[in-house]
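User: Structure tokens for both sequences below?

Assistant:
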Amino acid sequence: MKIVSQIVPFLLSTVQKYRIDDSHAIGHAFEVLRHSHLNWKQSSLIYPDLLGQRDVIYTSALVHDMCDNKYVDEKRGLTTIQNYLYQYTHLTNPEINAVSSIISTMSYSKVKKTGFPDLGEYQMAYHIVRESDLLAAYDVDRSIIYNLYKIDSKLDTCINNANHLFKTRVWKHLDDSLFTTAYSLEIAQKLVDESYQQMDTWREIYPSAISTMISGYDLSK
């Protein structure tokens, strides 16, 4: 796919430049792309206008964390993304504007603070990419890895932090009505079950870290 090949060099250089760790680097970008592609295929059967928005969706999925304020000033990162897209991709100016609007409004914190933006014809594209990022958040290991790089080198602390994040945020995504597409609603429930099992595995590997914190959870839920 041409647009993916055009974006990957930018991902490689940006990850290296800003020392973006494994939790938000290329592996995560590919995971969000995978969910976005599958959601786009399914949703386009209902919303045929999405067929012409594939490259906007793919691009947004790939670059969304290249302006994450955990690693880079958001405005500077967004400007760098825009400049690259103008120079090195076939995206039109309206498509680049759509990518910018999607990635600058899709974060969990912004949605919780201000709700969903109105992106007009790109509203479904926005939800597909935003929800794909949320689906990628159900990976317990990814949360632990982020904590190891950015918060604390002590594994027990990182496991506890991950457990707290899942308890207070990730396992509430469905109840908080953060998913709007049929694809995400179906996949999210499966990922909830898998993430409970994943956390239970960490309890077995490192019982002193989370044995007391997750006791009381119904891990078969």
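Moving on to the next sequence.
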Amino acid sequence: MALEQRRAAALRVSAARGDDALALLDERWDDLVARQPLPNPLLSASWLRALARWGTGTPLVVVAEAGGDLVAGAAFELRGAGRRLRPITARWLGPFEQLVSPDALADPAWPDAPAALLATVFEHADALRLERTPAYGVAATAFAAALPWRRAIQTGVRWVASAEPPGRARHRRRFAAEVARAEGAGFAVTIRVAEGPDEVAAAVVRMFRVHRDRWRDWLGEEPRFATTHAHRAWNARAIGEMAALGRVRLAEVAVDGRVVASDLGFLHGTGAVAHTGAMRPTDALRGPGHLAWSVSTDALVAAGATAIDLGLGCGGPGSAKARYSPVEEPVCAIVAVGTSARQRWLDAVAGIRGTAAGVARAAWGRA
């Protein structure tokens, strides 16, 4: 038997839904996250269990094991179950606005394992619809190899930075000079990094205030972090759970005892995610948000991160992200089905629903 056949035979793929799915998000899952080329703390068991609390769908976790080791896994949720003429769709677990570079997981020694997960996913769902997925990540690569009935559309870019990019020392000196200038003008500047659960909990509350003051009147603010009571309560709990595992670094810059900038990052093994920043304009410091960003990312690197996912958004000249000389990577949306027959059925259902919607609109127009 060829090596590839023996490896395929050694794989055991299983899936679980609901509370049983969340039980698969354990220490083995976190160990698999740590084995990724860029470990994503927001794919860790703690964060995924927190995402499930939003209740936006039924959790579905699919894993592949070999010799008792977890070698691949993916966390989805099912939407559309129980609705007439509505296909059941598997999406990434959790609400869209709480996801940063969601992907499947694979042990680098088992590159074919993610493809083995796909058939099991389609035993529970008619289609997959995945947003904000790295275009060259585990999921996109596996789908391209195994699913002819799919579409992938680039929807943006994410930025990934190394731990110590060129020019970083120059920026540190500039920030130090700016703090010295402010202190020379009579301002008391305090810079601190919260790590432990208690200090993180207090710093998160202060960060909520700064974030809300900054974005209160901006209509384009996405309800993700501090906009509503529900988001503040969810984030406070989820961040606290991550802090209890030592995976949070939250930098604060205060002037005369008042926090003017905060920056939140998460850590898992050698990988990190720059999550959220907030700042208030102040006459004391130029660019307090950039300073908090610098302190936060330095703290992540000091804790062991060798690369930082800076997320979506501006990484061009003049941005805080540009100071880390990030690499641009495409992000895509993927829609996939398991068979050509299922593709035809979904096309038919979409046509029926589209016709019904057109009739309803016409009837409403005549009323």
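User: Anything stand out in the second?

Assistant: The first strand starts at residue 12 and ends at 17.
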